[in-house]
Hints:
The two termini are 40 Å apart. By secondary structure, this protein is α/β, with parallel strands linked by helices. Helix 3 packs across helix 4, helix 5 packs parallel to helix 6 (185-200) and helix 16 (465-471) packs across helix 17. The protein has a six-stranded mixed beta sheet, with helices on both faces. The protein has a six-stranded mixed beta sheet with strand order 16-19-20-13-21-22, with helices on both faces. It has 17 helices and 22 strands. The protein has three domains: 5-249, Rossmann fold; 254-339 and 423-510, 3-Layer(aba) Sandwich (Rossmann fold); 355-421, no CATH class. The protein is globular and about 70 Å long. 33% of the residues lie in helices and 25% in strands. It binds adenosine-5'-triphosphate (ATP). Adenosine-5'-triphosphate (ATP) is lined by residues 19, 22, 24, 42, 44-50, 395, 405-410, 435, 437. Adenosine-5'-triphosphate binds next to strand 2, helix 1 and helix 14.
Amino acid sequence: MSADLSAHALVLTDAHKSFGSNKAVDGVSFSLAAGQVHALLGGNGSGKSTLIKMLAGVERADDGRLTIGDQTIALSDMTPARAAAAGLRFVHQQRSTFPELTVAENLAIGGYGFPLAPGGRVRWRAARRRAAEVLEKYDIEAFPDQLLGELGPARQAMVAIARALQVGGAGGILVLDEPTVSLPDTEVRLLLDAVRKHADHGQTVIFVTHRLEEVFAVADNAILLRNGQLVSEVAPRSITRGDLVELIVGSAVDEITPNDDAELGPAVLEAEALCAGPVGPVDLTLHAGEVVGVAGLVGSGRSSLLKALFGVLPVESGSVRLAGQPLSLASPRDGMRAGIAYVPENRAEDAAFPELSLTDNVSVAVLSDYWRKGRLRAGLQRRDARGLLSRFRIKAQSVEDPLSALSGGNQQKVMVARWLRRSPRVVLLDEPTQGVDVGARHEIYLLIREAVEAGAVALIASSDSEELAAICDRVIVLRGGRIVGEVPRTELTSNRVERLAHGQSKEVTV
Length: 510
Ligand SMILES: Nc1ncnc2c1ncn2[C@@H]1O[C@H](COP(=O)(O)OP(=O)(O)OP(=O)(O)O)[C@@H](O)[C@H]1O
């Protein structure tokens, strides 16, 4: 590929990386105009993370070249130090920031370092002054002495970005890997504004996301990968959302429309004056056939409510009934026995077994079904796993692969498949589509609907109010652990949900 290098901040030529026979990145070339936001898009497993890891020098490329300014580097020789020297700065989803340290300390550690006096003593006043300059420069509402953990999640991300930009001076390329995952909409907007400002000041940004509204809000250019290859490069402003979905998925995807006329079935799950940890008292009744959303700002108790209804968080007072019968939820075992399925928010810590095979990961909740007369029917277990992988369109080479070999979004689908296969009576899902591509997201919605039409109830906690508005029959809104409002289907918009979450006083424009 020939390119006018001077106009481009980065030129990538013929990047390749395979894992065994799997061509994760298969001959990708592109040139990025300087001072623009470039969204790197593609379905789960399309090669985005692998490509970024190659740029960062943490995944060794098989082939390819990278040109930044007047430097050309063979990708197979890339190391983190070379990437940093070339001006590539990365802010990963798992940001290495420290909530219990101050903003100034966070900016110094892993950033420009602490200013030292002769003898090695830290010059704290100078460190604070430097932090104040950085906060002012990037327009971050925070104080150097404030604990990072006291800031909202968007501002914490902004500090991580500012820190990355301090290393090695001005210019370079900022790579943001799904920076908005699990941020509520208002926080997303704050962060996107900050990203836009960086670009307006000349910063070149690569931005990985699955949330298409963010692409339209902030990106000048979109690079689309499918099966490790570049399928298209487009200016988002020149296409519709439907076109973009089609480019990502490879085919058109219909929007989900909840059935307004569906008759509600009998009460399946009833909570009365339920108190558990930060939640309560909560009264809640879920009827067969309903998908109910749980909205609320960070710390409102969304996740805790779901945990209490599964038995992860001990119920302190109040009662829960399942199909009219009292239910004691002292441990997750009680929840599982009662036919409750729970997909936690934090897959990596709470649910996944990264080194176990996909077969094991999708069958842990039904393992006893495969034991007959003291023997594990491993063939049947594998066959079922294969069927689930294809039903959930999980992209994997083999059911024997460890979960860790899958892309993030595909790992999430494995978690959902694990629970939905049990035909649960109650489905509790915490941020079920974080990191999941638009096509797979649609499939997860359909599978939730399928479970609900078969008589289950679903309770979905999400920070994405658009997601809730799109798939739920009604949404309850939590604040301070209590239900402060409910939005019925007929009035369900993301704007309405957000206003309630903020206490209605704040008008939100979406
Ligand atoms: N360490 C690894 N070992 C084996 N295969 C891997 C490894 N890392 C990635 N892959 C495979 O490479 C392909 C690309 O994965 P990658 O993580 O780059 O996708 P992605 O576009 O970032 O997906 P997502 O949106 O789900 O994060 C997938 O088929 C994945 O299973």
